[in-house]
Amino acid sequence: MDVLLANPRGFCAGVKRAILIVENALKIYKKTIYVKHELVHNKHVIEKLRNKGVMFVEKISDIPNNSIIVFSAHGVSKKTKEKALKKGLIILNATCPLVTKVHKEVSQASKKNIETIFIGHKGHPEVIGTIGQYNSTNSKIHLVESIEDIKKLPINLNHKKLNFFTQTTLSINNTRSIIKFLKKKFPYISGPKKEDICYATTNRQNAMIKLSKNSDIILVIGSKNSSNSKRLTELGEEIGVYTKQIESFLDIQKKWIKNIKYIGITAGASAPEFLVQQVIEYLKKMGAQNIKEISGNKEKISFKIPKYLTISKN
Ligand code: 0CJ
Ligand code: F3S
């Protein structure tokens, strides 16, 4: 039995930045730090931060006045920000800069009253936050998840003044076919050159395709509510490789790896590398001999945190 490791895998620049913001805030302020929603969608990351004194809340009203609030990597709506300000909360914004970029574009469209179509998953916090940047009373933002949803859009849309944007963690394949349909139906629609899917989502999906070529089974490490991890799992299934999404090595069932030669491993953008290493250790105990890193795109991108949250290493 051999183990193949996808490259890149695991933490993206936005997740690293969000975690650093919270860890430094704990050290600097030395008091409870509240985070709106899970900072990133990973059970282990959340548990670790909770043990260090972080409280995760869904409603701003659950936070005592004048506390410190961190907005999760997925971002929040304008209304949520207003509520936090009204309560006198000190806001530390851990929204991924690539999500903030989409926020700004949606907000611009709203100011210009340009009717907007947003491609994303209903109920996901990033989608709620991004749609919540649009507050025009003269035009609307419409959420679509599929081609079927596009067919159901109101017929009185202004075809010549229309925009589209997307969630950052969607399936590349699926989104491209949705956009193709959108452009066919609304030839004047404007939007990003490709889509707003981020570099990390793109790289991890491409690494998954590469990994699938030589794997008999692929284990995707990522929490159930992690959109980008779920997309990796679906991609493996679409390609036709036996794919299982796991929280940690504890979820691995012996029958999955019985008589298997090549086990592929990847991890979503919010899954820490120690979980990958634990899986490798477990598989070694189960008889894995060679551990091979598949070559892939080296990621050099990193995002700065605000100066007042920087702690010098000296
Ligand atoms: O939405 C994001 C800015 C991605 C954050 C990192 O991944 P995760 O798993 O916390 O979030 P998704 O559910 O969006 O993939
Ligand atoms: Fe940002 Fe993409 Fe990661 S949007 S948080 S770099 S998955």
UniProtKB/TrEMBL annotation:
Pfam families tied to this protein: LYTB
This enzyme's EC code(s): 1.17.7.4
Catalytic activity: isopentenyl diphosphate + 2 oxidized [2Fe-2S]-[ferredoxin] + H2O = (2E)-4-hydroxy-3-methylbut-2-enyl diphosphate + 2 reduced [2Fe-2S]-[ferredoxin] + 2 H(+); dimethylallyl diphosphate + 2 oxidized [2Fe-2S]-[ferredoxin] + H2O = (2E)-4-hydroxy-3-methylbut-2-enyl diphosphate + 2 reduced [2Fe-2S]-[ferredoxin] + 2 H(+)
Free-text remark on how the cofactor is bound: Binds 1 [4Fe-4S] cluster per subunit.
Keywords (A to Z) from UniProt: 4Fe-4S, Iron, Iron-sulfur, Isoprene biosynthesis, Metal-binding, Oxidoreductase
Function: Catalyzes the conversion of 1-hydroxy-2-methyl-2-(E)-butenyl 4-diphosphate (HMBPP) into a mixture of isopentenyl diphosphate (IPP) and dimethylallyl diphosphate (DMAPP). Acts in the terminal step of the DOXP/MEP pathway for isoprenoid precursor biosynthesis.
Entry binding sites for [4Fe-4S] cluster: C12, C96, C198
Domain of life of the organism encoding this protein: Bacteria
Record-given protein name: 4-hydroxy-3-methylbut-2-enyl diphosphate reductase
Cofactor section: [4Fe-4S] cluster
Species per Swiss-Prot/TrEMBL record: Buchnera aphidicola
GO biological process: dimethylallyl diphosphate biosynthetic process; isopentenyl diphosphate biosynthetic process, methylerythritol 4-phosphate pathway; terpenoid biosynthetic process
Positions contributing to dimethylallyl diphosphate binding: H41, H74, H124, S226, S227, N228, S270
Positions with a binding annotation for isopentenyl diphosphate: H41, H74, H124, S226, S227, N228, S270
Ranges in coiled-coil conformation: none
Pathway stated in the Swiss-Prot or TrEMBL entry: Isoprenoid biosynthesis; dimethylallyl diphosphate biosynthesis; dimethylallyl diphosphate from (2E)-4-hydroxy-3-methylbutenyl diphosphate: step 1/1; Isoprenoid biosynthesis; isopentenyl diphosphate biosynthesis via DXP pathway; isopentenyl diphosphate from 1-deoxy-D-xylulose 5-phosphate: step 6/6
UniProt-listed CDD domains: lytB_ispH
InterPro entries (alphabetical): LytB/IspH
Gene Ontology terms, MF aspect: 4 iron, 4 sulfur cluster binding; 4-hydroxy-3-methylbut-2-enyl diphosphate reductase activity; metal ion binding
Active-site annotation: E126 (proton donor)
Family: Belongs to the IspH family.
